[in-house]
Amino acid sequence: MSIDNLKGALPGYAKDIKLNLGSLVTTSSLSEQQLWGTLLATAVATKSQPVIAEVSNEAADHLSAEAHTAAKAAASIMAMNNVYYRSAHLIGGEYATMPARLRMTVIGNPGVDKLDFELWSLAVSAIGGCGQCLESHEKVVRSAGLSREQVQEAIKIAAVVNAVATTLEAETALATV
């Protein structure tokens, strides 16, 4: 099971997505842990069973058990945070300044390099559509030394993995019509 399996499952009309997916793993400027953790965290964020299965299995060859767990934890905690902070921001007023009072200890102690966890959280936030989370995590990773290009790469990974999931889920649904 692999990225190649996902590429092979994409229909002809998604040729651009297939090419982009292939280039993600061959032209990365991210470290191996950053790349595969970003792929795994964003796969989990898509909620697509085939994407999660394929990426998780291949990521296991590139990530330690701790990093594999931390990437999934980034997707999990950001699923909560993206909804909360996006909503508080959109409602505005006093909601934007109220303390969340939500447990988020994994962010402070993710079990891997904090920079990598923050990068994975940023990529998941791109899928979750939370501007406040994107801004916050981008600031952290940039101040820790990642370049704009590396941040952009994580966002591109999120975009492509999300497109793969959307396409495969649509094909599954269309097959039953």
From TrEMBL:
Disulfide bonds: 130-133
Catalytic activity: N(6)-[(R)-dihydrolipoyl]-L-lysyl-[lipoyl-carrier protein] + a hydroperoxide = N(6)-[(R)-lipoyl]-L-lysyl-[lipoyl-carrier protein] + an alcohol + H2O
Tagged with keyword Disulfide bond: yes
Residue span(s) of domain Carboxymuconolactone decarboxylase-like: 94-173
Molecular-function GO terms, alphabetical: disulfide oxidoreductase activity; hydroperoxide reductase activity; peroxiredoxin activity
Keywords of this entry: Antioxidant, Disulfide bond, Oxidoreductase, Peroxidase, Redox-active center
Entry-linked InterPro entries: AhpD, AhpD-like, AhpD_core, CMD-like
Catalytic site: 130, 133
Its EC number(s): 1.11.1.28
Keyword set includes Amino-acid biosynthesis: no
Gene Ontology BP term (one): cell redox homeostasis
HAMAP family (alphabetical): AhpD
Function, in words: Antioxidant protein with alkyl hydroperoxidase activity. Required for the reduction of the AhpC active site cysteine residues and for the regeneration of the AhpC enzyme activity.
Family as reported in the entry's similarity comment: Belongs to the AhpD family.
Complex and partners: Homotrimer.
Full protein name: Alkyl hydroperoxide reductase AhpD
Organism: Sphaerimonospora thailandensis
